[in-house]
């Protein structure tokens, strides 16, 4: 069943309420999915899931009536840790792929990061446009993957700005392929084994250009832990997807197995 | 350092030998990388790594002289299990992305699979072209990710052909999102815990169109085990990447941690 997000800041959604989809979501439901009155869709508002019927179309906007609160639990859908993926600036199609796939894999925040070896730069005019475009991609990927939350795309930061703001994270990790060359692949598992439910992880990835030695030193000095993502060299856009998949496997799948004890 | 594969069927490469890169690899080294005589690259032949210098260019082909056998061990680079990724037919850009990223993540074979709900069909004329194109993508992704082997793209199979040929695999798994709806995410970890080094896994994924109930029943009847890939719905092109990342994490990263005992 198709899922759409509804923004409501001051109160939760209730059964019986009428809601209007956003312009993009209305277009998707009415034109792409050819939605007819009476059709049921899933609505998510403030992490709560509801069922709603399409009842009207007003000036191109889809109007829905909420008829049931769903038993879906956001905690069962969202990763048990909050992962911020911070990436150096890659070409549009690569950074957009990262945001789309990382959203499917459970990312909570995306932090564009300006690094010295980036192959592209965002000037201040473009930065807001790029951020908006990535936010739309995250929105639609979150609907498609049935997330309970839309990952937030943060404003671009320089390395210094990122390090200054990194105190709030319980865990700060840097993916660094030199660790792979030393064969120390277990570092990542060590780091994951030290996380607790609900904690915030800031996980940093270079762009195609990689990281300079100065940057790596600055991350180390700021308390970041370095880790590799296995023995093969991953492209800039593959590394965050590998990382989130591994986090999901470790904390949602293998964890469950231990609980079930059905090995 | 740039890596290229050399095909040699009847004997291994030896130090002192001269080798010629393929047409595509010569173009890459000479034109894309602007290689100069004397430049050192890594050569992989039959899973063995060597260092070689560019010494000449003959009719557009790069000629290299092998000067050192590298201490690189294929076993340290390749996944400890042989994973065949079998996928329903997706649009070109999606199936190409799967092959590229799955190569980075350690896939051994790619099996295109014709399923009833596929959004595209390969007619017999196109099938060979598509297979060749995917083989080139796997080749270049294997070089880029420093694999010891190039994953082989197999000829397209129908479901019946796949099931008939599936006896040789020790493990046959089907990614099926209905398992996710039941919350039984631990199935995947259970399956992985039953694998041994060197075993062959056939892991099947539907295309965007998904699997029909008849197909799922046929897989079950043929002894395939069903599993989900966590609680979020993944796109057709994301699921194999998630799966391989999780396999790598479980068998290369978390496994190492247990060995190191440095938790």
From TrEMBL, chains A, B:
<keyword id="KW-0949">S-adenosyl-L-methionine</keyword>
<feature type="domain" description="Ribosomal RNA small subunit methyltransferase E methyltransferase">
    <location>
        <begin position="78"/>
        <end position="248"/>
    </location>
</feature>
<keyword id="KW-0698">rRNA processing</keyword>
<dbReference type="InterPro" id="IPR015947">
    <property type="entry name" value="PUA-like_sf"/>
</dbReference>
<dbReference type="InterPro" id="IPR006700">
    <property type="entry name" value="RsmE"/>
</dbReference>
<keyword id="KW-0808">Transferase</keyword>
<dbReference type="InterPro" id="IPR029028">
    <property type="entry name" value="Alpha/beta_knot_MTases"/>
</dbReference>
<dbReference type="InterPro" id="IPR046886">
    <property type="entry name" value="RsmE_MTase_dom"/>
</dbReference>
<dbReference type="Pfam" id="PF04452">
    <property type="entry name" value="Methyltrans_RNA"/>
</dbReference>
<dbReference type="InterPro" id="IPR029026">
    <property type="entry name" value="tRNA_m1G_MTases_N"/>
</dbReference>
<comment type="function">
    <text>Specifically methylates the N3 position of the uracil ring of uridine 1498 (m3U1498) in 16S rRNA. Acts on the fully assembled 30S ribosomal subunit.</text>
</comment>
<keyword id="KW-0963">Cytoplasm</keyword>
<comment type="similarity">
    <text>Belongs to the RNA methyltransferase RsmE family.</text>
</comment>
<keyword id="KW-0489">Methyltransferase</keyword>
<dbReference type="GO" id="GO:0008168">
    <property type="term" value="F:methyltransferase activity"/>
</dbReference>
<protein>
    <recommendedName>
        <fullName>Ribosomal RNA small subunit methyltransferase E</fullName>
        <ecNumber>2.1.1.193</ecNumber>
    </recommendedName>
</protein>
<dbReference type="GO" id="GO:0032259">
    <property type="term" value="P:methylation"/>
</dbReference>
